[in-house]
Amino acid sequence: MLNRSIAPSFSKTFSFDLPNPEIAKLHGEVDLVFLQGLQQEVFKIEVIFDAGKWYEPIPGLAHFTSILLDKGTSSTQSKKIAELLDYYGAQIEISSGYDFVSISLYGLKKFLREILPVFVEIISDPVFPEEELDLQKNIFLQNLEINEKKTSFLASRLIRKNVFGQNHPYGNYVEKENVDVITTSELRGYFKSNFSAREVYLIGSLVPKQIEWVIDQLSSLMLGSTYIKKDYTAQPGDLIQHIPKSDSIQSSIRMGMRTINRIHNDYFYLLLLNHVLGGYFGSRLMKNIREEKGLTYGIYSSLNPFCNDCMFTIGADVDKANVELTVDEIKREIEALILRQVTKEELNVTRNHLLGGIQLEMANPFSTFDKIKNIRLNQLGINYYNNLFIKIESVTPDELQSIAQQYLNTNNLTIVSVG
């Protein structure tokens, strides 16, 4: 009989075995990546396009082309599309990122035949109505006006600009003058040149006949983009910049620099080192700057990997009078990682938190599928997450200090503050 007065023995087992998806070909060119295993009677179809900021000729074109996809086709007006999706309990989600544009359809499996043809129509035959573009422009400009009053928004925008340069797709941002010149003609041209499906992802417990029908429905998509990818060179701006804002009580600090990407052999170690520094609530930056000195409610550091680069960032909002002190303390914490090894106890706590968080995501099949998508789109290799666990499990304090010495030089940090 189980003795409930005795706590169970502690067992720490980290593993990360992703399921193997099935692969089908659309027109013999583009992969349809399919994963079974959902217990719920739902499905998700996601189409990926090489159409993010990296590819746009002017800032904002990718964004406006994407958000107008479901605003009307040559045969169905936007109102009718919205009513049909609402009637069948379906949802369309559009994401325009730095590298990719994705459009996803969530729905009930029993209504697959009713809603998928509408989804295919949206991503193969959008018309970009003038009135819808005007509406989206007004919404964007109103939000921009509100955001430009926030120091955190301005600082986050400024750090990317100063790290990558204002002409780099990872560093530029959409301004009012960019919005004003965008026309429906340019949206149609960008759609035609860039919205050929790169890959399609499907998750849901569908039978083979349903899969065959989905493949047939998707056959009308433009497949296999012929767009020639541009290359950009980062041209950093000011290393230190402060933008005064007299009507603001606080100042937003952002510090950052370019660093190694996910394909680099040392990336996993740098990921763990970032977690020690400022990647979770028990990090050194939180303990020092929030808990001990009370300079901020929250401070973080993160690695922001893109397809073609990566940026290490630190951010916090503080009282105006404490900007210099906060920056000095952040640098001191970075230099401590360079000069002294982390203790085995701190390393174990941080490692368990990082790996446990990643492992917890496996309980969600959609998050699991996102990891498969991440591997494929970034060409990381099928054993990427297993290697992550193996390397982080085996790293030593000495190796982690060496990583800090190699990649966390405070002289390379770009520093901006707004407020």
Strand arrangement, largest sheet? 1-2-6-3-5-4
Number of helices: 15
Shape: globular
- Arithmetic mean pLDDT: 92
Residue windows where pLDDT falls under 50 for at least 5 positions? none
Helical/strand content category: alpha+beta
Give the end-to-end Cα distance, rounded to a whole number of Å.
Answer: 64 Å
Radius of gyration: 24 Å
Biggest beta-sheet profile: 6 strands, mixed
Strand content: 15-25%
> What is the N-to-C succession of helices and strands?
EEEHHEEHHHHHEHEEHHEEHHHHHE
Q: How many individual β-strands? A: 11
Helix content: 40-55%
Layout of strands and helices, then pairs:
Layout: E1 22-26, E2 30-35, E3 42-49, H1 61-67, H2 78-87, E4 91-96, E5 101-108, H3 112-124, H4 130-147, H5 151-164, H6 176-181, H7 184-194, E6 197-203, H8 208-218, E7 240-243, E8 250-258, H9 267-279, H10 284-292, E9 299-305, E10 310-319, H11 323-339, H12 344-360, H13 365-377, H14 384-394, H15 397-407, E11 414-418
Parallel strand pairs: 2-6, 7-11
Antiparallel strand pairs: 1-2, 3-5, 3-6, 4-5, 8-10, 8-11, 9-10
Detailed description of the structure:
The chain is α+β, with helices and mostly antiparallel strands and 419 residues long. Helices cover 43% and strands 18% of the residues. The strands form two sheets. It has a six-stranded mixed beta sheet, sandwiched between helices. α9 (267-279) packs across α15 (397-407). The protein is globular. The mean pLDDT is 92.
